[in-house]
Design brief:
296 residues; alpha/beta; Phenylalanine Hydroxylase; 4-stranded mixed beta sheet; 8 strands; binds fe (ii) ion
Amino acid sequence: MTSKESLGLQLGEINAANAAILRDRDQRAVVELDPDHPGFRDVAYRARRNAIADIALRYKPGTPLPTVDYTAEEHDTWRIICDHLLPTQQRLACRAYLEAAANLQLPTQQLPQLRDVSARLEQLSGFRLEPAAGLVDPRVFLCTLGEGIFLSTQYIRHPSAPLYTPEPDIVHELLGHAVTLAHPQLAEINRALGQAAQRTESNEMLEKLGRIYWYTIEFGVLMEGQQPKAYGAGLLSSAGELQRVETVELRPFDLYEMIERSYDVTQYQPFLYCAPSFEEMLIQLQDFLNRWPRIY
Ligand SMILES: [Fe+2]
């Protein structure tokens, strides 16, 4: 595990640039990995990433979600991660997440298909998944949330480092985001944030809204009794980062401070914003987003 473990587990959809998606002359996807990516020297992994990105690029909205024929090795990676992560979640995830996880019932022994998870999600909260080849433009990503759609990658991290990823993969998308989106109230917050993005014209304000997303939907913590518990997808999809909820500096839940506070996607978070309760987090965030961009 390295300090960069946190990177992919967070706002890669919005910020990181560890893997760009290009197209070759035949318009097939070519995923560009950084030299320090665990799969950089693995020709077979890179071909696999290209093939899975290509599936997403060829997807047409409104058609059935494409499936990926996952290999035994990819299922193994998923299983190893579930074995590490789920016990930590039981201890440090907020009640809403654990309830949603029980309802969504993601399989732990094999990698699920987006199509199946999306269908279940739609029954639970009305949210749907659609495939993304890789990093998505922040405005597109957030505005799509406003339509009740979460853009999700379908590939899994390199098998040599199952507890590390420098970019958001299907582990982060499903064990982090899809579970939280299965909770109707958390889904509503995601949708409200997306609708706020739709009302945001300036890039400067969009960046501020992105910080709200980061410090709440990705890295939010709240108190349950005397215990800080995670509701952020970035925390909930990384055993290493989730354990830090008990020791990291917790700052008061202050949305006006969040919008002015930049963050580093390449490191564990040096502090987290902690709401006094689940209900208080929902009320303050919903009110703030309803007024956006007229917040001052
Ligand atoms: Fe994320």
